[in-house]
Design brief:
Blueprint lengths: L2 H11 L16 E3 L17 H14 L4 E4 L24 E4 L2 E4 L5 E3 L4 E9 L6 E10 L2 E8 L14 E2 L4 E4 L12 E7 L12 E3 L3 H7 L4 H4 L2
Parallel strand pairs: 1-2
Antiparallel strand pairs: 2-4, 3-12, 4-11, 5-10, 6-7, 6-9, 7-8, 8-11
């Protein structure tokens, strides 16, 4: 499926009723959050510390009278420099620091919902430092088109009762968010990503890319806001 074909498919289902976080939190209570290298406020935050970054995010939510912060698609971030899993000694164009999904920042234990009718494609606990931690990938079909959504940074309990092929309806609970102890060492949040071609991945797919691979991933991982309408 090409990106243009995908956008045609999305136009058939695009409405404000697509949620991936508990519907108790209205989208009116969401606030956008900038975690890019261009955010000067982050110069005073130790983004390598899940606790310190969490304090910054929670304060941002509080001062905006919100309940959830979101954002991050195609942001160039500095946070990944802390992890050798993303970046060893590489040339600048090879540094993996461009975020391919949308992050939704809210408390651990919050329910995560299936964006659309789906079945479980795969799942895995990706335990590298700075990785997703527990992750579920759902498969969707609209007309003749198949695509996937990835849900990262879940709780370990979310892995206990799920099986490949399980069916979920749009809006049904599939998991809960994990704490920093299990989610790759981040403040609690959901990484939500759309994937057109899953390739040979199972329970995992790159959520951060380098500049020299950006054009491929922009096509294969369209903006999640096409679905979420945030």
């Amino acid at each position: 499926m090409s990106k243009n074909q995908f956008q045609t498919v999305i136009s058939k289902i695009n409405d404000l009723s697509v949620y991936v976080i508990d519907k108790a939190f209205s989208k009116k209570s969401y606030v956008s959050l900038d975690l890019s290298k261009d955010n000067a406020e982050l110069e005073f935050v130790n983004v390598s510390s899940a606790n310190n970054l969490g304090v910054y995010i929670n304060e941002h939510i509080k001062v905006n009278n919100a309940q959830l912060a979101y954002g991050g698609y195609l942001e160039t971030r500095g946070i990944y420099q802390r992890s050798s899993y993303f970046n060893q000694k590489t040339a600048p164009l090879d540094e993996r620091n461009i975020h391919l999904g949308v992050d939704l920042w809210i408390n651990a234990g919050t329910n995560v919902l299936a964006a659309l009718d789906s079945e479980v494609h795969s799942f895995n606990n990706n335990i590298n430092h700075g990785d997703y931690g527990p992750t579920i990938i759902l498969k969707h079909q609209v007309d003749d088109f198949v695509f996937y959504t990835l849900y990262g940074h879940l709780s370990t309990e979310s892995m206990e009762s799920i099986s490949i092929g399980d069916k979920y309806k749009k809006g049904e609970i599939i998991a809960q968010l994990g704490s920093s102890e299990v989610n790759g060492d981040y403040p609690p949040h959901l990484h939500f990503q759309i994937i057109i071609d899953i390739e040979n991945y199972m329970g995992d797919y790159p959520g951060v890319c380098s500049l020299n691979k950006l054009e491929f991933y922009k096509k294969n991982c369209p903006d999640p806001n096409l679905l979420l309408c945030l």
